[in-house]
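Late entry, evening session. Most of the bench is empty. Finally got around to the prediction I had been postponing all week. Sequence below, unchanged from the version circulated by S.P.
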Amino acid sequence: MADDPMFEIPAHPERRYTNRTVYYEGDVAFMLTPMDGRAGRLEPLLTDVLDTGPYRYGDWFDLPIAVFLVHDEETSDTFRVSIRDGAVRLHVLPDTTPAGLRAIYDRLVQKSTCRWTVDRRVDV
């Protein structure tokens, strides 16, 4: 489709380790925003998509917003997903590929039956 968003990753973040933690230098995130005003219902939609599979995921963080670490069993991609400001945000990790991002986007669109906008933010 001509209107299909591209999930091109111009630069992957670099993973750095200290004795206490891991952190990332650089950030690429895709903001998926529904165009039908369902922003308040994004978390149930996202967990429905994740529960349907082919995902393994967890929300191990004690944060005021939903943040999931997600692994797609079909594409072998791992990435973070958060919900903030009325958008589902896909955060690229060092080994994330466009195929994994495209797959979760397609599943969200299929479950929601609405149009979505996709914006990419790159901080390197």
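Two things to note before I forget:
The chain has a mean pLDDT of 89.
The longest strand covers residues 27-34.
Will write this up properly tomorrow.
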